[in-house]
Amino acid sequence: MNTRPPIVQSLLENDLYKFTMWQALLHSHPGAQAEYAFVCRNTPAYPLAELKQDIEAELDALCSLNFSRDELDYLRGLRFIKSDFVDFLSLFRFQRHFISVTTEGDTLKIEAKGPLVHVMGFEIFVLYIVNELYFRRLPTGDDILAEARRRLQDKIRLLQQHKTELAAGDAEPFIFFDFGLRRRYSGAWQEEVVGTLLESVPEHFRGTSNVHLARKFGTTPIGTMAHEYLQAYQSFGFRLRDFQKAALEGWVQEYRGDLGIALTDVVGMNAFLDDFDLYFAKLFDGLRHDSGDPVAWGEKVLDHYQRLRIDPASKRLVFSDGLNIPRAIELYRHFRGRIGTSFGIGTDLTNDTPHKALNIVMKITSCNGQPVAKLSDSPGKTLCDDQTFLAYLRQVFNHPHPTGPGEPS
Protein backbone atom coordinates (compact mmCIF):
# COMPACT_ATOMS: atom_id res chain seq x y z
CA MET A 1 0.00 0.00 0.00
CA ASN A 2 1.32 3.45 -0.96
CA THR A 3 1.68 5.56 2.18
CA ARG A 4 3.40 8.53 0.55
CA PRO A 5 1.63 11.88 0.75
CA PRO A 6 0.07 13.16 -2.49
CA ILE A 7 2.49 14.80 -4.92
CA VAL A 8 0.43 18.00 -5.13
CA GLN A 9 0.38 19.60 -1.71
CA SER A 10 -0.73 23.10 -2.72
CA LEU A 11 -2.79 24.57 -5.55
CA LEU A 12 -0.33 27.45 -5.49
CA GLU A 13 2.34 25.09 -6.84
CA ASN A 14 1.60 26.05 -10.42
CA ASP A 15 3.36 28.23 -12.98
CA LEU A 16 2.59 31.92 -12.66
CA TYR A 17 1.45 32.20 -16.26
CA LYS A 18 -1.38 29.78 -15.48
CA PHE A 19 -2.78 32.31 -13.01
CA THR A 20 -2.27 35.30 -15.31
CA MET A 21 -3.92 33.57 -18.30
CA TRP A 22 -6.64 32.19 -16.04
CA GLN A 23 -7.55 35.67 -14.82
CA ALA A 24 -7.54 37.16 -18.32
CA LEU A 25 -9.72 34.41 -19.77
CA LEU A 26 -12.10 34.39 -16.81
CA HIS A 27 -12.73 38.09 -17.41
CA SER A 28 -12.95 37.94 -21.20
CA HIS A 29 -14.38 34.51 -22.09
CA PRO A 30 -15.78 32.83 -18.96
CA GLY A 31 -18.13 30.57 -20.94
CA ALA A 32 -15.56 29.03 -23.30
CA GLN A 33 -15.30 25.24 -23.46
CA ALA A 34 -11.98 23.51 -24.14
CA GLU A 35 -10.19 20.20 -24.49
CA TYR A 36 -6.60 19.41 -23.49
CA ALA A 37 -4.56 16.30 -24.33
CA PHE A 38 -1.40 14.79 -22.86
CA VAL A 39 1.44 13.79 -25.21
CA CYS A 40 4.85 12.24 -24.57
CA ARG A 41 7.24 13.30 -27.35
CA ASN A 42 10.10 10.91 -26.59
CA THR A 43 10.44 7.24 -25.67
CA PRO A 44 10.24 6.52 -21.92
CA ALA A 45 12.25 3.85 -20.15
CA TYR A 46 9.04 1.89 -19.57
CA PRO A 47 5.44 2.32 -20.79
CA LEU A 48 3.73 5.30 -19.18
CA ALA A 49 0.49 3.31 -19.27
CA GLU A 50 1.82 1.47 -16.21
CA LEU A 51 1.30 4.66 -14.20
CA LYS A 52 -2.45 4.84 -14.82
CA GLN A 53 -3.64 3.70 -11.40
CA ASP A 54 -1.21 5.94 -9.52
CA ILE A 55 -2.12 8.94 -11.68
CA GLU A 56 -5.81 8.35 -10.98
CA ALA A 57 -5.12 8.43 -7.25
CA GLU A 58 -3.06 11.61 -7.54
CA LEU A 59 -5.82 13.32 -9.52
CA ASP A 60 -8.35 12.29 -6.87
CA ALA A 61 -6.16 13.98 -4.28
CA LEU A 62 -5.69 17.08 -6.46
CA CYS A 63 -9.44 17.46 -6.80
CA SER A 64 -9.84 17.50 -3.02
CA LEU A 65 -7.68 20.61 -2.57
CA ASN A 66 -8.69 24.23 -2.04
CA PHE A 67 -6.61 27.38 -1.89
CA SER A 68 -5.78 28.29 1.70
CA ARG A 69 -6.44 31.73 3.13
CA ASP A 70 -2.68 32.44 3.28
CA GLU A 71 -2.25 31.44 -0.38
CA LEU A 72 -5.11 33.68 -1.45
CA ASP A 73 -3.66 36.56 0.54
CA TYR A 74 -0.34 36.04 -1.23
CA LEU A 75 -1.99 36.18 -4.65
CA ARG A 76 -3.98 39.22 -3.63
CA GLY A 77 -0.69 40.92 -2.83
CA LEU A 78 0.52 40.63 -6.44
CA ARG A 79 -0.41 43.96 -8.01
CA PHE A 80 -1.60 42.45 -11.31
CA ILE A 81 -3.96 39.94 -9.64
CA LYS A 82 -7.44 41.37 -9.21
CA SER A 83 -9.62 40.89 -6.16
CA ASP A 84 -12.54 39.30 -8.02
CA PHE A 85 -10.19 36.63 -9.41
CA VAL A 86 -8.97 35.84 -5.91
CA ASP A 87 -12.61 35.60 -4.81
CA PHE A 88 -13.18 33.11 -7.65
CA LEU A 89 -10.17 31.06 -6.54
CA SER A 90 -11.47 31.03 -2.96
CA LEU A 91 -14.45 29.01 -4.25
CA PHE A 92 -12.55 27.00 -6.85
CA ARG A 93 -12.01 23.25 -6.75
CA PHE A 94 -10.92 21.00 -9.62
CA GLN A 95 -13.74 18.74 -10.83
CA ARG A 96 -12.68 15.12 -11.23
CA HIS A 97 -15.20 14.38 -13.97
CA PHE A 98 -13.52 16.94 -16.24
CA ILE A 99 -10.35 14.83 -16.55
CA SER A 100 -9.91 11.19 -17.61
CA VAL A 101 -6.99 8.76 -17.70
CA THR A 102 -7.06 5.86 -20.18
CA THR A 103 -4.56 3.66 -21.98
CA GLU A 104 -4.17 2.33 -25.51
CA GLY A 105 -1.67 -0.47 -25.32
CA ASP A 106 1.46 1.09 -23.83
CA THR A 107 0.27 4.63 -24.53
CA LEU A 108 -0.99 6.80 -21.68
CA LYS A 109 -3.89 9.09 -22.55
CA ILE A 110 -4.96 11.96 -20.30
CA GLU A 111 -7.70 14.29 -21.51
CA ALA A 112 -9.36 17.24 -19.81
CA LYS A 113 -12.67 18.51 -21.20
CA GLY A 114 -14.96 21.18 -19.84
CA PRO A 115 -15.15 24.92 -19.18
CA LEU A 116 -11.84 26.52 -20.17
CA VAL A 117 -11.50 28.32 -16.84
CA HIS A 118 -11.82 24.99 -15.04
CA VAL A 119 -9.76 22.60 -17.18
CA MET A 120 -6.86 24.90 -18.15
CA GLY A 121 -5.43 24.61 -14.64
CA PHE A 122 -4.89 20.85 -14.87
CA GLU A 123 -1.92 21.02 -17.24
CA ILE A 124 1.05 21.71 -14.98
CA PHE A 125 -0.21 19.46 -12.19
CA VAL A 126 -0.65 16.54 -14.60
CA LEU A 127 2.84 17.00 -16.00
CA TYR A 128 4.67 17.05 -12.70
CA ILE A 129 2.51 14.22 -11.33
CA VAL A 130 3.46 12.04 -14.30
CA ASN A 131 7.12 13.04 -14.00
CA GLU A 132 7.45 12.29 -10.31
CA LEU A 133 5.60 8.97 -10.56
CA TYR A 134 7.73 7.99 -13.55
CA PHE A 135 11.07 8.68 -11.87
CA ARG A 136 10.04 6.94 -8.65
CA ARG A 137 10.03 3.65 -10.61
CA LEU A 138 13.56 4.20 -11.91
CA PRO A 139 16.63 3.70 -9.70
CA THR A 140 16.45 6.35 -6.96
CA GLY A 141 19.53 5.63 -4.86
CA ASP A 142 21.78 8.22 -3.27
CA ASP A 143 24.04 8.14 -6.33
CA ILE A 144 21.28 9.68 -8.50
CA LEU A 145 20.87 12.76 -6.33
CA ALA A 146 24.62 12.93 -5.70
CA GLU A 147 25.19 13.21 -9.43
CA ALA A 148 22.38 15.76 -9.79
CA ARG A 149 23.97 17.86 -7.04
CA ARG A 150 27.37 17.59 -8.73
CA ARG A 151 25.89 18.85 -12.00
CA LEU A 152 24.16 21.71 -10.22
CA GLN A 153 27.45 22.72 -8.61
CA ASP A 154 29.11 22.62 -12.04
CA LYS A 155 26.56 25.16 -13.24
CA ILE A 156 27.20 27.37 -10.24
CA ARG A 157 30.97 27.16 -10.74
CA LEU A 158 30.58 28.13 -14.39
CA LEU A 159 28.66 31.25 -13.36
CA GLN A 160 31.21 32.09 -10.69
CA GLN A 161 34.14 31.60 -13.10
CA HIS A 162 32.62 34.18 -15.45
CA LYS A 163 31.40 36.44 -12.65
CA THR A 164 33.22 39.55 -13.86
CA GLU A 165 32.06 39.18 -17.46
CA LEU A 166 28.48 38.34 -16.52
CA ALA A 167 28.25 41.36 -14.24
CA ALA A 168 28.53 43.19 -17.58
CA GLY A 169 29.97 46.50 -16.40
CA ASP A 170 27.88 49.21 -18.01
CA ALA A 171 25.45 46.68 -19.52
CA GLU A 172 22.75 44.60 -17.84
CA PRO A 173 24.01 41.55 -15.90
CA PHE A 174 23.25 37.98 -16.89
CA ILE A 175 19.87 37.04 -15.35
CA PHE A 176 18.10 33.68 -15.39
CA PHE A 177 15.02 32.08 -13.84
CA ASP A 178 13.77 28.58 -13.02
CA PHE A 179 11.09 27.45 -15.50
CA GLY A 180 11.34 23.77 -14.56
CA LEU A 181 8.16 22.94 -12.66
CA ARG A 182 6.43 20.92 -15.36
CA ARG A 183 9.33 18.54 -16.06
CA ARG A 184 11.06 18.37 -12.71
CA TYR A 185 12.61 15.23 -11.26
CA SER A 186 10.66 15.71 -8.03
CA GLY A 187 9.19 18.41 -5.86
CA ALA A 188 11.92 18.02 -3.26
CA TRP A 189 14.63 18.34 -5.90
CA GLN A 190 13.17 21.50 -7.45
CA GLU A 191 12.97 23.08 -4.01
CA GLU A 192 16.63 22.19 -3.37
CA VAL A 193 17.67 23.61 -6.75
CA VAL A 194 15.87 26.91 -6.21
CA GLY A 195 17.19 27.29 -2.67
CA THR A 196 20.75 26.46 -3.71
CA LEU A 197 20.75 28.92 -6.61
CA LEU A 198 19.29 31.72 -4.50
CA GLU A 199 22.01 31.18 -1.93
CA SER A 200 24.92 30.67 -4.35
CA VAL A 201 24.32 33.06 -7.26
CA PRO A 202 21.67 35.62 -6.20
CA GLU A 203 23.18 38.21 -8.54
CA HIS A 204 22.16 36.03 -11.51
CA PHE A 205 19.29 33.84 -10.31
CA ARG A 206 16.24 36.06 -9.88
CA GLY A 207 13.16 33.89 -9.43
CA THR A 208 11.02 30.92 -10.41
CA SER A 209 7.81 30.27 -12.32
CA ASN A 210 6.68 28.04 -9.42
CA VAL A 211 4.43 30.37 -7.41
CA HIS A 212 4.53 28.17 -4.29
CA LEU A 213 8.33 28.19 -4.20
CA ALA A 214 8.49 31.91 -4.99
CA ARG A 215 6.31 32.52 -1.95
CA LYS A 216 8.29 30.11 0.21
CA PHE A 217 11.68 31.64 -0.64
CA GLY A 218 10.51 35.25 -0.86
CA THR A 219 11.65 35.56 -4.46
CA THR A 220 9.91 36.75 -7.62
CA PRO A 221 7.27 34.61 -9.39
CA ILE A 222 7.95 34.78 -13.14
CA GLY A 223 5.62 34.43 -16.13
CA THR A 224 3.13 36.10 -18.43
CA MET A 225 1.42 34.08 -21.18
CA ALA A 226 1.70 30.69 -22.87
CA HIS A 227 0.55 29.34 -26.23
CA GLU A 228 -2.87 28.24 -25.01
CA TYR A 229 -3.91 31.83 -24.34
CA LEU A 230 -3.32 32.89 -27.94
CA GLN A 231 -4.58 29.59 -29.38
CA ALA A 232 -7.90 29.95 -27.57
CA TYR A 233 -8.45 33.20 -29.47
CA GLN A 234 -8.55 31.18 -32.69
CA SER A 235 -12.03 30.09 -31.55
CA PHE A 236 -13.43 33.31 -30.12
CA GLY A 237 -15.21 34.56 -33.23
CA PHE A 238 -12.54 36.85 -34.64
CA ARG A 239 -11.40 36.51 -38.23
CA LEU A 240 -8.67 33.86 -38.00
CA ARG A 241 -6.11 36.21 -39.51
CA ASP A 242 -6.77 38.63 -36.63
CA PHE A 243 -6.65 36.26 -33.65
CA GLN A 244 -3.13 37.27 -32.52
CA LYS A 245 -3.98 40.97 -32.53
CA ALA A 246 -7.19 40.23 -30.62
CA ALA A 247 -5.30 38.17 -28.02
CA LEU A 248 -2.62 40.83 -27.55
CA GLU A 249 -5.26 43.53 -27.25
CA GLY A 250 -7.12 41.44 -24.67
CA TRP A 251 -3.90 41.16 -22.67
CA VAL A 252 -3.26 44.89 -22.85
CA GLN A 253 -6.76 45.68 -21.62
CA GLU A 254 -6.48 43.17 -18.76
CA TYR A 255 -3.06 44.15 -17.45
CA ARG A 256 -2.69 47.80 -18.48
CA GLY A 257 1.13 47.73 -18.69
CA ASP A 258 1.94 44.90 -16.30
CA LEU A 259 3.22 41.52 -17.52
CA GLY A 260 4.49 43.00 -20.75
CA ILE A 261 6.30 40.07 -22.37
CA ALA A 262 4.49 38.63 -25.41
CA LEU A 263 4.94 35.11 -26.80
CA THR A 264 5.82 35.04 -30.50
CA ASP A 265 5.66 31.52 -31.92
CA VAL A 266 2.00 30.47 -32.07
CA VAL A 267 1.86 30.74 -35.87
CA GLY A 268 5.51 31.49 -36.55
CA MET A 269 7.73 34.49 -35.98
CA ASN A 270 7.15 36.16 -39.34
CA ALA A 271 3.38 36.12 -38.89
CA PHE A 272 3.77 37.44 -35.36
CA LEU A 273 5.86 40.40 -36.45
CA ASP A 274 3.29 41.21 -39.13
CA ASP A 275 0.79 41.71 -36.30
CA PHE A 276 3.19 43.26 -33.79
CA ASP A 277 2.89 46.79 -35.11
CA LEU A 278 4.00 50.09 -33.56
CA TYR A 279 1.03 50.08 -31.20
CA PHE A 280 1.88 46.71 -29.64
CA ALA A 281 5.64 47.24 -29.88
CA LYS A 282 5.31 50.33 -27.70
CA LEU A 283 2.86 48.74 -25.25
CA PHE A 284 4.77 45.49 -24.61
CA ASP A 285 8.11 45.47 -22.78
CA GLY A 286 9.53 42.67 -24.89
CA LEU A 287 9.11 39.23 -26.42
CA ARG A 288 9.64 35.57 -25.43
CA HIS A 289 11.37 33.01 -27.63
CA ASP A 290 10.19 29.39 -27.50
CA SER A 291 11.00 27.82 -30.89
CA GLY A 292 13.31 28.18 -33.86
CA ASP A 293 16.89 29.44 -33.91
CA PRO A 294 17.22 31.90 -30.99
CA VAL A 295 19.92 34.07 -32.60
CA ALA A 296 18.01 34.46 -35.86
CA TRP A 297 14.84 35.15 -33.86
CA GLY A 298 16.55 37.83 -31.77
CA GLU A 299 18.05 39.51 -34.81
CA LYS A 300 14.59 39.66 -36.40
CA VAL A 301 13.25 41.34 -33.27
CA LEU A 302 16.06 43.90 -33.30
CA ASP A 303 15.44 44.68 -36.97
CA HIS A 304 11.72 45.01 -36.30
CA TYR A 305 12.19 47.47 -33.44
CA GLN A 306 14.64 49.51 -35.50
CA ARG A 307 12.23 49.69 -38.45
CA LEU A 308 9.60 50.98 -36.04
CA ARG A 309 12.13 53.53 -34.70
CA ILE A 310 12.01 52.02 -31.22
CA ASP A 311 15.27 51.83 -29.29
CA PRO A 312 15.89 48.08 -28.72
CA ALA A 313 17.82 48.93 -25.56
CA SER A 314 14.49 49.87 -23.99
CA LYS A 315 13.09 46.37 -24.63
CA ARG A 316 13.78 42.80 -23.48
CA LEU A 317 14.19 39.36 -25.03
CA VAL A 318 13.28 36.37 -22.85
CA PHE A 319 14.69 33.05 -24.06
CA SER A 320 13.04 29.85 -22.83
CA ASP A 321 13.46 27.08 -25.41
CA GLY A 322 15.44 24.07 -24.17
CA LEU A 323 18.17 26.17 -22.58
CA ASN A 324 21.09 25.28 -20.37
CA ILE A 325 23.51 27.67 -18.63
CA PRO A 326 26.27 27.57 -21.31
CA ARG A 327 23.79 28.24 -24.14
CA ALA A 328 22.14 31.04 -22.17
CA ILE A 329 25.55 32.66 -21.61
CA GLU A 330 26.28 32.45 -25.36
CA LEU A 331 23.01 34.24 -26.13
CA TYR A 332 23.71 36.82 -23.46
CA ARG A 333 27.09 37.55 -25.03
CA HIS A 334 25.58 37.83 -28.49
CA PHE A 335 22.92 40.38 -27.55
CA ARG A 336 24.67 42.16 -24.67
CA GLY A 337 24.59 45.94 -24.99
CA ARG A 338 22.04 45.82 -27.81
CA ILE A 339 18.86 44.77 -26.00
CA GLY A 340 17.95 43.50 -22.53
CA THR A 341 17.94 39.73 -22.07
CA SER A 342 16.87 37.17 -19.50
CA PHE A 343 16.65 33.39 -19.60
CA GLY A 344 14.10 30.87 -18.39
CA ILE A 345 15.79 27.49 -17.89
CA GLY A 346 13.61 24.46 -17.24
CA THR A 347 14.53 20.81 -17.52
CA ASP A 348 18.30 21.41 -17.36
CA LEU A 349 17.87 22.94 -13.89
CA THR A 350 15.24 20.72 -12.31
CA ASN A 351 15.80 17.38 -14.09
CA ASP A 352 19.51 17.12 -14.92
CA THR A 353 20.14 13.63 -13.51
CA PRO A 354 21.58 10.39 -14.90
CA HIS A 355 18.06 9.49 -16.03
CA LYS A 356 16.80 10.74 -19.39
CA ALA A 357 14.12 13.38 -18.90
CA LEU A 358 10.65 12.92 -20.31
CA ASN A 359 9.54 15.36 -23.02
CA ILE A 360 5.88 15.62 -22.06
CA VAL A 361 3.25 18.26 -22.74
CA MET A 362 -0.46 18.75 -22.17
CA LYS A 363 -1.80 21.14 -24.76
CA ILE A 364 -5.12 22.68 -25.70
CA THR A 365 -6.49 20.89 -28.77
CA SER A 366 -9.90 22.49 -29.23
CA CYS A 367 -11.92 25.39 -27.90
CA ASN A 368 -15.63 26.10 -28.31
CA GLY A 369 -16.01 22.96 -30.40
CA GLN A 370 -13.40 23.78 -33.02
CA PRO A 371 -9.73 22.82 -33.37
CA VAL A 372 -6.94 25.15 -32.34
CA ALA A 373 -3.26 24.75 -33.17
CA LYS A 374 0.26 26.05 -32.81
CA LEU A 375 2.48 26.29 -35.90
CA SER A 376 5.92 25.99 -34.39
CA ASP A 377 9.16 27.22 -35.90
CA SER A 378 10.79 24.06 -34.49
CA PRO A 379 10.11 20.64 -36.08
CA GLY A 380 8.22 18.34 -33.72
CA LYS A 381 6.46 21.03 -31.68
CA THR A 382 3.31 21.44 -33.76
CA LEU A 383 0.33 19.77 -32.08
CA CYS A 384 -3.02 19.40 -33.84
CA ASP A 385 -5.12 16.34 -34.68
CA ASP A 386 -7.14 18.12 -37.38
CA GLN A 387 -4.98 18.18 -40.50
CA THR A 388 -7.56 20.21 -42.43
CA PHE A 389 -7.47 23.03 -39.88
CA LEU A 390 -3.67 22.83 -39.71
CA ALA A 391 -3.43 23.22 -43.49
CA TYR A 392 -5.87 26.14 -43.41
CA LEU A 393 -3.89 27.84 -40.64
CA ARG A 394 -0.68 27.45 -42.64
CA GLN A 395 -2.38 28.98 -45.67
CA VAL A 396 -3.81 31.95 -43.78
CA PHE A 397 -0.47 32.80 -42.16
CA ASN A 398 1.76 31.73 -45.07
CA HIS A 399 3.59 29.37 -42.75
CA PRO A 400 5.97 26.94 -44.51
CA HIS A 401 5.26 23.25 -44.27
CA PRO A 402 7.79 21.61 -41.94
CA THR A 403 10.54 19.35 -43.21
CA GLY A 404 11.81 18.08 -39.87
CA PRO A 405 10.88 14.80 -38.16
CA GLY A 406 7.89 14.59 -35.90
CA GLU A 407 5.59 17.04 -37.68
CA PRO A 408 2.25 16.04 -39.16
CA SER A 409 2.33 15.35 -42.86
UniProtKB/TrEMBL annotation:
Keyword field: Glycosyltransferase, Ligase, Phosphoprotein, Pyridine nucleotide biosynthesis, Transferase
Changes after translation: Transiently phosphorylated on a His residue during the reaction cycle. Phosphorylation strongly increases the affinity for substrates and increases the rate of nicotinate D-ribonucleotide production. Dephosphorylation regenerates the low-affinity form of the enzyme, leading to product release.
UniProt pathway: Cofactor biosynthesis; NAD(+) biosynthesis; nicotinate D-ribonucleotide from nicotinate: step 1/1
Gene Ontology molecular function, alphabetical: glycosyltransferase activity; nicotinate phosphoribosyltransferase activity
Gene3D superfamilies reported in the protein's UniProt record: nicotinate phosphoribosyltransferase (3.20.140.10)
Pfam families for the chain: NAPRTase, NAPRTase_N
One GO cellular component term noted in the UniProt record for this chain: cytosol
Record field: catalytic activity: 5-phospho-alpha-D-ribose 1-diphosphate + nicotinate + ATP + H2O = nicotinate beta-D-ribonucleotide + ADP + phosphate + diphosphate
One biological process term in Gene Ontology: NAD+ biosynthetic process via the salvage pathway
Chain ranges of the Nicotinate phosphoribosyltransferase N-terminal domain: 12-131
EC number(s) per entry: 6.3.4.21
Modified residues (Phosphohistidine): H227
Domain Nicotinate/nicotinamide phosphoribosyltransferase, chain residue ranges per copy: 175-401
Biological function: Catalyzes the synthesis of beta-nicotinate D-ribonucleotide from nicotinate and 5-phospho-D-ribose 1-phosphate at the expense of ATP.
Similarity-based family: Belongs to the NAPRTase family.
Database matches in PANTHER family: NICOTINATE PHOSPHORIBOSYLTRANSFERASE
Name of the protein this chain belongs to: Nicotinate phosphoribosyltransferase
Name of the encoding gene: pncB
